[in-house]
Queue: 2 jobs
Job 1
Amino acid sequence: MFSERRKFLQALAGGLPASWLAFQNKLAGAPPTSEDDWKTVKRQFPLADGLTYLNAANVCPASRPVLDRHFEYLRDFHADPSFQNREKYDKLQESLRRKLARLLGADPAEIAIVRNTSEGSNIIVQGLDLKEGDEILITSHNHPSSNHSWKVRAKRDRLVVREASVPVPARSQQQLIDSLASKITRKTRVLAVTHVTNTTGNKYPLEEIAQIAQKHGIWLHVDGAQSLGALEVNLHKIGCDSYAGSAHKWLMGPLENGVLYVRKEKLDRLWPLIVTAGWEQNPQDARKLEVFGQRDNPRLVAFEAAVDFLNFLGMARVEARLRTLVTHLKQKLAANPAVVLRSSMDWDLSGGVVKFTVRGVPTDQLYQELYAKHRIASARTLSGEAEGIRYSPHIYNTLEEMDYAADVLRSRPGA
Ligand SMILES: Cc1ncc(COP(=O)(O)O)c(C=O)c1O
């Protein structure tokens, strides 16, 4: 941890703003533990004063070091777009790949740097050889970037899509496992699950699910949009075949960057979605999946800075902090008799996503009021079993904000 911290400080030394240097001075040698330390972390984010931002599951702000790195390299790129000046970006991209691999417990050759979760999942959906009658098992709470794309592929190639229902909220890990295992047939070729759902925050026990998939020779694809940067993730330990995530969510990186992991032994089963110059250089590793023509090089440098920022704090510490915030929030919400929680109180069954309704208050009305009257940015689902307001805090939020977000609901007429 301390060597990561030292490396991060060295990497960022020079040309950085006073705000970052002050942050570094305040926390160097002493990882954030106290509320004051976390407030120092919060000050690294350019969130507007008075805004309680609770929508990490959609998009997170990037920290100042990440934004500064981005601007610095944007200026560099456009000041001198020559091949000579741009040579360094290849090395920086490889450095990012190594750091992502370490963050996720994978090998660099298993990591493709893609543009977001949607693209990563679509590379799997469109890239696997499948034949008429093969079955794809999805869950009813997967994001459309997984479920819609499987349905389109199924229509084109006469595949069969089967859908496992999702308990709201989950009562046990076994219940989640059984909901999938009971739908597997001899024809199931792919199982597509979401690590933590964006709908109600159910967290799937991936290691057990991967063992079942392996036993049946099924490709397990994991949508990691709500776990990358939020939870400690070790993909080799989990044993899935592929995993996709976005940089602009919990990882607090730049927009339109993401990661796709594909297990080494499975890489040769995937056709690339886009083929252009560079594909032939890496036919055996995940780099073949990220050739899209000219990339936005400065943005990739900013992505690296976001991974550095997380490493500096320590992924275990980030997850522990998220757990503290979310548990506090859920306890406050559960203490309000008007609130109906749709997310589990149990951390083993949930992540950073908290979903609830308030009795007697239409969800859309509440959603609008939260922002207009209380400056709370949330998300909402308007109907169905996942209906409700979604609060998704992250490390730039404070315990006071959790109190505020829960307390404003008590001033509602229905509450
Ligand atoms: C579970 C899940 N998967 C995929 C996505 C799509 O992410 P992106 O738009 O970054 O591709 C989202 C977006 O919220 C999500 O919540």
Job 2
Amino acid sequence: MVWNPQTYLAFADERTRPAGELLARIPDEHPARVIDLGCGPGNSTALLAHRWPRAHLEGLDSSPQMLEQAHKSGVTAHWIEGDVAAWRAHEPYDVIYSNATYQWVGDHEHLLPRLMGFVKSGGTFAFQVPHNMDAPSHALMREVAAQGPWAGKLANVREIAVLKAEAYYDVMRPHALGVDIWETEYLQVLHGEDAVYHWVSGTGLRPFVQALDGAEREGFIAAYKAKLNAAYPMRADGTTLFPFKRLFAVARK
Ligand SMILES: C[S@@+](CC[C@H](N)C(=O)[O-])C[C@H]1O[C@@H](n2cnc3c(N)ncnc32)[C@H](O)[C@@H]1O
């Protein structure tokens, strides 16, 4: 699946804010080894580098386009191309951190305990995932996908996969001293025409759009945009309000 760093970074502030809020809840003062799984263009890794300048810091991502941007970011880190689902640590880490990535990996019941096994005793495992699968932005994506002439091609498109907060607690608790989980709903203030469409086209919409081409792709986008604009109308001041819920988890080993 191809990522476009420019489209993604069009909302850099909104996307990086939860990365900082997750980081703020990690108590480690001087971790020696830190990794950012799904580092993207390096925006989340930059926060880790700033907080722990002496740590051996790695950023891992499966997208060459994102890693190219990460290299250009100037952040001091070791960039690694790899798949989180298959990744194994050669040495344990003090902090394994991930912002807005595990929803693309799935199978969290097995993924999280496996990754937590790579954290040193006394270290921290921390992640954030979007928790908005029931929001109109995603419900309408599924609705439009199922209704048009493209329905057959989109029937098996893999959507982002997240669990409920209580399920994350149950999955992580046997492998941790304690687990801190919380949710935040941001009222995102977006600007310009088709604002919510532009947001999701950088992330959740990509698997749907990439499964289509030509007139079918255009038709799908037009139908989805029309429903999105009705669900998230532009306000008198030209902004569009886009409520967006995210789930955060910090586990101490
Ligand atoms: C939404 S971006 C998050 C980027 C950054 N961490 C941030 O805080 O904004 C998700 C990133 O996860 C990466 N990704 C998705 N699936 C992956 C996988 N299985 N293994 C490694 N990286 C993956 C994508 O390439 C993308 O860069």
